[in-house]
Amino acid sequence: MTLQIELVAADRVVWSGEAREVIARTAEGDIGVLTGHAPLLSLLVPGVVEIFPVDGDTVRAAVSEGFISVAADRVSILSEDTFLADEVDESALTAELEKARSSDDEAAVRRAEAKLRLIGKAS
Amino acid sequence: MAVSLREYRAKIRSTQSTKKITRAMELIAASRIIKAQQHAAAAAPYARELTRAVSALATYSNVDHVLTTENPDAKRAAILVIASDRGLAGAYASSVLKETEQLAERLRGEGKEVTYFLAGRKAETYFNFRQREFEKSWTGFSDKPTYDDARAMGDALIARGGHMDDADEDAEDLPVIDELFVVYTRFKSMLVQEPTAIRLFPLEIVEGEEAPEDAEVLPLYEFEPSAAEVLEAVLPKYLYSRIYSCLLQAAASELAARQKAMKSATDNAQDLIEKYTRLANQARQAGITQEISEIVGGANALAEASASD
């Protein structure tokens, strides 16, 4: 048994496939989802989602506010802004963070910080 | 006659360059439609999952939310009009505006006051020209909308939707909107696009297009932190996603309408060129015939003159 994962951003499917485990940060704390998990609909906070695929390396993605839904070994992670670790570029992110800070957009600051944290963790 | 021939040739040349332009616009629109359809297809999984989640919330929780509850004596309705930024798309913008007028009339008939939110420069100029008031307008993205555009529009609309806790203070001075409608052009196929009016809130959870597997039984979800909080967080996203899908469909429709309009313009230009070419040939022939008869007449006159000597 494996989990069917769909990591979805507002305008595209970021990653989908089979995995053994997913770790995500929800409003209630980090949760790990294995097969046979009870149906769950939980809110995500901006942070890093880790997916352990059946084969291949761990997939890391930065998410903004969104939610995770688990049902019958199908996991959907929905977040408006979702990026895989190898898609983001540090200098672009630092610029984005600066811009967000200067424009006093708290949500944007958190989004950018989440992405930066992701890079720090991945490298 | 020679003057007329030159005029025809000039007309042919100018029609040919018009045809080149309309042909180019047709091809550009055609290639962009494919992209717009891809965007719409790419946005579908998000909308589908979101719809599932909202349906689950609506089915398994008894939580009421201002965005979902009907207001029996709704006083104010808002219409979000999604039109294009540019013209040259046939009747695209005007049919959206016509649909808007019909909807507005119906709402006024029900005794509601109507306010407008506009997307697209064409809608804006329509209202400005008639010196009619609208509350807010967004322009510059009608053929290539992004999710951020949808979010910005959604935020502005939710803020005016009133009674949400965090929006209350800012919206105090403006009367609250009880109902929100969207008028956009639904993309049915490359040939058929339909101006449509839908109600966005109070929300009707639409399974229709976004959720093909409607026969599926929804699992009994556990909501964390609580159903109410999840609903509070998910509903605005659902609204954004609905607006986004309206924008994407409108964009695809706009491009399809433009392609169609430009195709018929190109065909018309071709017809004109053919017509002018015929007329030019006729004029040329007439010129030649006249010259010949002048020469013959002149020769005859000379021959007669020398014969009579």
From TrEMBL, chain A:
Compartment(s) of residence: Cell membrane
InterPro entries tied to this protein: ATP_synth_F1_dsu/esu, ATP_synth_F1_dsu/esu_N, ATPsynth_dsu/esu_N
Keyword Iron: no
Coiled coil: none
Recorded topology in the membrane: Peripheral membrane protein
Main location: membrane
Keyword match Membrane: yes
CC per GO annotation: plasma membrane; proton-transporting ATP synthase complex
Keywords (A to Z) from UniProt: ATP synthesis, Cell membrane, CF(1), Hydrogen ion transport, Ion transport, Membrane, Transport
One example GO MF annotation: ATP binding
Transmembrane segments: none
Positions of the ATP synthase F1 complex delta/epsilon subunit N-terminal domain: 3-80
Assembly and interaction partners: F-type ATPases have 2 components, CF(1) - the catalytic core - and CF(0) - the membrane proton channel. CF(1) has five subunits: alpha(3), beta(3), gamma(1), delta(1), epsilon(1). CF(0) has three main subunits: a, b and c.
PANTHER family documented for this protein: ATP SYNTHASE DELTA/EPSILON CHAIN, ATP SYNTHASE EPSILON CHAIN, CHLOROPLASTIC
Role description: Produces ATP from ADP in the presence of a proton gradient across the membrane.
Family in the record: Belongs to the ATPase epsilon chain family.
Name of the molecule in the record: ATP synthase epsilon chain
Organism the protein comes from: Aeromicrobium flavum
Gene: atpC
UniProtKB/TrEMBL annotation, chain B:
Domain of life: Bacteria
UniProt record, GO biological process: proton motive force-driven plasma membrane ATP synthesis
Lineage: Bacteria, Bacillati, Actinomycetota, Actinomycetes, Propionibacteriales
Membrane protein topology class: Peripheral membrane protein
Molecular-function GO term, any one: ATP binding
Annotated GO CC locations: plasma membrane; proton-transporting ATP synthase complex
Function according to Swiss-Prot or TrEMBL: Produces ATP from ADP in the presence of a proton gradient across the membrane. The gamma chain is believed to be important in regulating ATPase activity and the flow of protons through the CF(0) complex.
Keyword ATP-binding tagged: no
Predominant subcellular localization, coarse grouping: membrane
Keywords per UniProt: ATP synthesis, Cell membrane, CF(1), Hydrogen ion transport, Ion transport, Membrane, Transport
Protein known as: ATP synthase gamma chain
Record text on subunit structure and interactions: F-type ATPases have 2 components, CF(1) - the catalytic core - and CF(0) - the membrane proton channel. CF(1) has five subunits: alpha(3), beta(3), gamma(1), delta(1), epsilon(1). CF(0) has three main subunits: a, b and c.
Protein family membership: Belongs to the ATPase gamma chain family.
Localization (cell): Cell membrane; Membrane
